[in-house]
């Protein structure tokens, strides 16, 4: 693109109300944040358990820095794989009851690495249309045939699997859909993958730490485990820190170490984050009340919201999307909330389908009932006046 074309595109985005802008966060993440010099009640982050600024994680980070310094200094395969990373991989595998885990620097990189290590030209990647962008980019990068099925349409998926008989197949899905909050029908997906001999990649970025009694995510939620499942989750959401991992059968993990380019050709994330994450895993069980509180807040929000004009999508996860339709209304609604001291992001295309702009309300164990009540009241008040 030329400079003039870039400029024209920016002008067009601005005119359409689609220009994305960044805010400056001046505090730690939490229920109450300071943004651009003002205090807000916030429903924006993926810090679902309220661990991002937990004192135990801050302590563990400082201990990690004292022991390992601040930079990993190299990729995992050179000399960046510290004892802290290694312990964390062991702890994650043990926590999930899976044979092995492998850390990646981000969820985006994990998805690129896994998919392109397992699929290539002539293979088929079958993906839910509402999957996260990183899974789509991964499918494009690996040059396999990329087929996207309508959200949760298992009949369509089955037809595509049947048509791809004899070829290597990878079914990829968000376990909890990041903009809708609904949970993928994993048992049914697994049954299809068994019938048609396909891998099943589950991206549990939004379920890990949240779903299941112990926070083991979507596998615990459905009581499932199967060697054809490739389980991936991020560590910058409920775990409160940064990074991602994949867990599964031992040969799979060994093969990813040899083949996943986003694992091999990048600096390992700082070991101090691994020490923080070990503390965070400890809190998943030590402070299990956080999941209980979160569930109560989700139920409270759903029963108290009561707006007639906008549609709350059916979701039992902390992601509560209020669909308003057009981009302008979504932005006006977010601005009206902001004027009342409440931050909620307006999500517009291309992140969500056209005509389905929404507020993505995310709840956290860091919130109180009073915080959620304030949000519900503000939305009702805006509905009366907007
Ligand atoms: N998968 C899903 C479903 C996500 O929502 C996200 C992050 N928004 C990612 C992957 C990427 O994870 P990370 O932020 O660690 O790159």
UniProtKB/TrEMBL annotation:
Homodimer. CDD domains: KBL_like (cd06454). Residues 39-379 form the Aminotransferase class I/classII large domain. Keywords: Acyltransferase, Biotin biosynthesis, Pyridoxal phosphate, Transferase. Its cofactor is pyridoxal 5'-phosphate. One of its GO terms (molecular function) is 8-amino-7-oxononanoate synthase activity. Its EC number is 2.3.1.47. Pathway: Cofactor biosynthesis; biotin biosynthesis. Pyridoxal 5'-phosphate binds at residues 107-108, 178, 206, 234. The modification N6-(pyridoxal phosphate)lysine is found at residue 237. InterPro entries: Aminotransferase_I/II_large (IPR004839), AON_synthase_class-II (IPR050087), AONS_Archaea/Proteobacteria (IPR004723), AONS_Proteobacteria (IPR022834), PyrdxlP-dep_Trfase (IPR015424), PyrdxlP-dep_Trfase_major (IPR015421), PyrdxlP-dep_Trfase_small (IPR015422). Catalyzes the decarboxylative condensation of pimeloyl-[acyl-carrier protein] and L-alanine to produce 8-amino-7-oxononanoate (AON), [acyl-carrier protein], and carbon dioxide. Belongs to the class-II pyridoxal-phosphate-dependent aminotransferase family. BioF subfamily. Substrate binds at residues 20, 132, 351. PANTHER family: 8-AMINO-7-OXONONANOATE SYNTHASE (PTHR13693:SF100), CLASS II AMINOTRANSFERASE/8-AMINO-7-OXONONANOATE SYNTHASE (PTHR13693). It catalyses: 6-carboxyhexanoyl-[ACP] + L-alanine + H(+) = (8S)-8-amino-7-oxononanoate + holo-[ACP] + CO2. This is 8-amino-7-oxononanoate synthase. It comes from Thiobacter aerophilum. Pfam families: Aminotran_1_2.
